[in-house]
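Appendix B. Raw example, untouched.
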Amino acid sequence: MKISLDRFPGGKLKALTMSYDDGVQQDIRLIEIFNRYGIKGTFHINGGLFGKESWSRLNENEIKKVYEGHEISAHGYTHLGLSEISDEGIISEIMRDREKLEKITGEPIRGMSYAFGSVNSHVAKIVGMLGIEYARVVSTTGEFGFPDDFLQWRGTCHHNDNLLEYADKFLSQNWHQLMYVWGHSYEFDGDDNWEHIEEFCKKIGGQDDIWYATNIEICDYIKALRGLKFTVKQDVVLNQSAINVWITVNGNPLEIKGGKTVRLAQ
């Protein structure tokens, strides 16, 4: 029996997730584009910097409505580089940010991106003890693979890194892969290239074989998939999570529902 952990919801082979930092006014226009093409994004926000005019940051009372249908994630309460401050400072930056954003969303905040990409193994270890499930860095892989360490998650590319070429390659390949794009929406104003992200979204959106998901949805799904328990003979599988996951068995996609034990056909 050949078993592969290579499917996303609905048996799809590919997934796309977008990741944008700082909670700025330009996110409104970006989300309008995402919504037009059925793309989902994660927006990493500094809870202590709402309404700062110098950065055109959104006000606190705008957040929930602006990001409806997308993920609100942490970015540090005051946007400090975590590898340059004390352990107490790291804890304060993350926990105050979580608390502020959770008050707005009414939900646990379980993800983040590192301000300035400032992280090392010590910082990542502390972050992982603060209720954070994933944290994105700024360096990228140039590939469509999956993270070994969700607390130092490297995306595929920044949106200025030959994005349309990456999209063409991603669309042309038909195997298990994840495309992860990150950036700042204010860059589209500065570079005067909003048509760049519009063209990308138009090209890659609305595809039947792509799962469009937030960062936390990707994280939760991959962890559930990797957490499947098989018998030695691989004829029975247990899904201990609450998430329905898909695998390939002898070339055919198969759904394993959350909390279920399934006997696999020989």
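End of appendix B.
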